[in-house]
Amino acid sequence: VSLYENYADEIASLIERGTLRAGDQLPSVRQARATRSVSASTVFQAYYLLEARGLVRAEPRSGYYVLPQAAPAPRRSNPKPGSRRVAVSELVFEVLGSVKARHIAPLGSAFPSPTLFPLEALRRAAAAGMRRLDAWSTVDDLPPGHEPLRRQIARRYLKLGMAVTPEQIVLSNGALDALNLCLQATTQPGDAVVVESPCFYAALQALERLNLKAIEVPTHSASGLDLEHLARVLERRKPQAVWLMTSFQNPLGSLMPEDKKRALVQLLARHQVPLIEDDVYAELYHGSQAPLPAKAFDTEGLVLHCASFSKSLAPGYRVGWALPGRYAERVARLKLMTSLSGSIPAQAALADYLQDGAFDRHLAQMRRALKRQQEQLLTAVERHFPAGTRMTRPLGGYFVWVELPAPIDALALHQAALGHDISLAPGPMFSARAEFGNCLRLNSGHPWTPQLAQAMATLGQLAAAQQHRGTALAGETQG
Ligand SMILES: Cc1ncc(COP(=O)(O)O)c(C=O)c1O
How many whole angstroms from 175 Cα to the centroid of ligand 1? Predict the structure, then answer.
């Protein structure tokens, strides 16, 4: 073992034992050289190695800092077998209502902070886009939608190495509209649809609305849906469609490795089952490269890829799209039948904004902010939540999934937290059977403030209080 590996191992063990904690600074290169009588390059190599292992991060012109050491959340969920009708809406509406008030700490919100978006540049693009619109656009831009925007979206796929033409894209009112249209295009009432466990609650609501049954498939908190389980479900249960997220899944944050995405597409092609791929967080990766969607591996037009600008640029504009493969015409017709068309001025504004490099510059900035905020949130979980708490550390997006030790109940914690003006998203929102009663989804999409820090400390105290009460109660009943 070389000198630098030795030094890196020593620091790693200090982190593991908790002597060095999240946010602590490593000794400066000068200090380390002096105290250990080694060269600067040995110290640098050791720090690079620790960075590569995900234990520390470099802060330009400042030094190296210990990262939160997230214990993985449950490696794989374990939903009960069987399909079922879905009813999650009441809880979802209650939680969504609670995040609307501005004075509430938005840890349960599904949105990032509006301050992360380039509002002024969008305002200018909206004015310019409107000036360019001609009177006939109301007719020309009926589904599949405003052509200049479809061309800009197609150009963005090209950056991923995907050859997409504007004709293959159907514009929608946000991704949720696209997802609902794709679900409707691929199913009939009474059909069964595979979803993840846990999954985005709106998928459950869409199933509920269209009278479809959910088959929940276990999902790994790091690598997404369990493909072996899916293969068995496809054999035995003959679902009509699969709806899932392959990158930065909501709520887990899981990211399917590329090989697994390819295998998923091939497996579904063998069974001729369409995949509705919700990819709204794909642009918000923390690393240096955009993840490819499963759609990139689709050779049969069986993947209906849905995305939007809601999470990365302009939530209120309600502009999204589907790339529905062989279902494109059906999806465009359903769009016409259900809402005629999306809003053309909003589509024109985004087409104008996307013409130059402004979106990429904005995204680079937003990704850095989200990565930093995630560290701050994870550090706070580690500092304030009861021992035994586990959490995910996603490689993109802005959600963290937290598993609390027994007997803490996320729904009770949600009620208690609201009393302190704090929102959170309790685990049962993400399950057709109200599972994940000890889990929460927290939002790291907001710049870190003293108020957020205080909210996290309060949440930690509320969780600890629940744990003590629960343990005391269990003691009494046993005694
Ligand atoms: C996973 C997921 N899909 C889709 C959506 C909806 O996207 P849009 O606002 O573009 O309709 C959301 C928003 O919360 C989401 O979290």
Answer: 6
Q: Could you tell me if 313 and 333 are in contact, meaning their C-beta atoms sit under 8 angstroms apart?
A: no
397 CB near ligand 1 (under 6 Å): no
Q: What DSSP letter does each residue of 44-66 carry, written as one string?
A: HHHHHHHHHTTSEEEETTTEEEE
Contact 478, 445 (CB under 8 A): no
**Ligand 1 midpoint to CA 251 (Å):** 11
Q: What are phi and psi of 187, to 5 degrees?
A: -135, 165
Taking CA atoms, 423 is separated from 5, 99, 106, 146, in Å, by 44, 6, 6, 38
pLDDT tens for each residue of 40-55: 999 999 999 998 888 8
Place of tokens 């059906």: 330
Distance (Å) from CA 6 to ligand 1 centroid: 46
* Atom of ligand 1 minimally distant from the CA of 179: 4
Give the range among 71-85, 261-275, 434-448 with minimum mean pLDDT: 71-85
Q: What is the CA radius of gyration of the chain?
A: 24
Main-chain phi, psi angles of 38, to 5 degrees: -125, 170
Q: What is the pTM of this model?
A: 0.84
Closest CA to 335 of 327, 346, 326: 327
How far, in Å, CA of 213 to CA of 194, rounded? 9
Instruction: Identify the three-state secondary structure at position 403.
Output: strand
CA dihedral 158→160→164→168, nearest 10 degrees, is -130
| Gap between the Cα atoms of 320 and 331, Å rounded | 13
Protein residue with its CA nearest to atom 13 in ligand 1: 110
CA distances from 311 to 205, 467, 476 (A): 20, 35, 48
Confidence at 88, pLDDT banded by 50, 70, 90: low
Contact between residue 432 and residue 91 where contact means Cβ atoms under 8 Å apart: no
User: E strands, 396-447, where?
Assistant: 399-403, 425-426, 439-443
